[in-house]
């Protein structure tokens, strides 16, 4: 007995990558260096965040925002010990919450719980 033929969905047409004009690339670079994230810029220009990263790298822009200098790490420890939240310090220093938390833990800082008490 022959196997029945099951109709299938046609394959989606591959999307064509949106190409930014030179003026848009310069605007994107300026916005990124001014503090916008790749996610924000992707939404703004209608492109994927990975495309934003590729454009920045192609144009020689350093996209490594995930590090803290030794001096900034010392300042972060002081701010945290004075009662500031990780989120507010991370925003001020333009790093992610998890990056800041990891840096503080490596420096032996005891993390506070939600109620402000030191965690066991």
Which terms would index this structure?
single chain, 120 residues, mainly alpha, 50% helix, flat
Entry summary:
This protein has helices spanning 22-33, 38-45, 49-58, 70-81, 86-93, 97-106. By secondary structure, the protein is mainly alpha-helical.
Proportion of residues in β-strands: under 5%
Give start-end ranges of low-pLDDT stretches: none
How is the main sheet built? Answer: none
Shape descriptor: flat
Q: How would you spell out the order of helices and strands?
A: HHHHHH
Number of helices: 6
Number of strands: 0
Q: Quaternary status of these chains?
A: single chain
**Portion in helices:** 40-55%
Mean pLDDT: 84
| Cα end-to-end separation | 69 Å
Radius of gyration: 22 Å
Which structural class do you get from the secondary structure elements?
Answer: mainly alpha
């Amino acid at each position: 007995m022959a196997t029945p033929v099951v109709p299938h969905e046609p394959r989606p047409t591959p999307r064509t990558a949106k190409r930014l004009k030179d003026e848009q690339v310069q605007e994107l670079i300026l916005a990124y260096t001014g503090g916008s994230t790749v996610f924000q810029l992707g939404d703004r220009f209608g492109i994927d965040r990975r495309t934003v990263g590729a454009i920045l790298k192609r144009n020689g822009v350093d996209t490594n925002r995930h590090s803290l200098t030794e001096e900034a790490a010392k300042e972060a420890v002081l701010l945290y010990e004075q009662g500031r939240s990780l989120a507010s310090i991370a925003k001020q220093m333009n790093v992610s919450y998890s990056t800041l938390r990891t840096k503080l833990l490596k420096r032996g800082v005891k993390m506070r719980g939600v109620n402000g008490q030191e965690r066991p």
